[in-house]
Amino acid sequence: MRLVKPFFGGNWKMNHGPRAARRFVEEFTALFPPSQDRTVVFFPPAVSLAEFRTAAAGREDLLVGLQDVYWEPSGAFTGSISAPLAKDAGATFVIAGHSERRHVFGDSDEDVVRKVAAISAAGLTPVLCVGELLEERDRGEVESVVTRQVEIGLSQLQAEEAERIVVAYEPVWAIGTGRTASAEDANEVHELIRGMLVERVGSAAARAIPIIYGGSVKTSNIEELLAAPEIDGVLVGGASLSPKDFAQICRTVWR
Ligand code: 13P
After folding, report:
1. Hey, what CATH topology would domain 68-238 get?
2. Is position 98 annotated as part of the catalytic site?
3. Residue bearing the CA closest to ligand 1, atom 2
4. Atom of ligand 1 at shortest distance to CA of 129?
5. Angle of helix 183-201 relative to helix 142-154, nearest 10 degrees?
6. Whose CA is nearest to atom 1 of ligand 1?
7. How does pLDDT run across 187-246, given as a tens digit for each residue?
8. Which of 100, 161, 170, 230 is catalytic?
9. pLDDT tens digits, 78-103
10. Residue 175 · residue 130 · CB < 8 Å
11. Taking 80 as the threshold, does the pLDDT of residue 247 lie above it?
């Protein structure tokens, strides 16, 4: 399945329990009519997924995913959720390698690749997050860090699996800080990622893969970001917690 661009992801992180999720859906659906010309995916906390889906019944255009999974399919792994369990709960996407997983919880590149492979094997779409730390940017290492993360992240996927992913470029210094990468800077990194995807899956398939930007996306900068030729969508944290702001972001006219 090819994803319709632009792609809008709302990563709620550790916010909005089931009751808040229901209220959110009621408000959001009133502000955002069903739309076939874009992809909108919510990543609520796992405990809110069922309530989200119940509240959004009849809105097949609003997709859901989980923020993380463990790579084993089942077993004695207290506290963890697997990709098959996520699928059973109605998720169609799972984020892998979010910077908070990498830097707060210590997920290594090797952990991320196992997760990407497990998500894909379960028939779900991995959203592979990559992005450099501020000190890496200052040392001029953006290209090498992002290249390494993308290369490793995709290394266990078959060609046809690698065609069915989303790549999110989220510079760590722009997440939750109010500092957004300029559309120009982000576009440059997206171009680099696109080039790697072209080598991996060929030009036509690589063009179809959404490469999205995340890091302090707001109603005030969404238009500029989406105007950049290689930015196919966004992964929104803080601003996705407000139905009003996120509906406005999701309604942005696509170039
Ligand atoms: P903010 O939009 O809050 O900066 O978070 C971005 C992010 O991490 C999305 O996954």
Report:
1. TIM Barrel (3.20.20)
2. yes
3. 237
4. 10
5. 40
6. 237
7. 999 999 999 999 999 999 999 999 999 999 999 999 999 999 999 999 999 999 999 999
8. 170
9. 999 999 999 999 999 999 999 999 99
10. no
11. yes
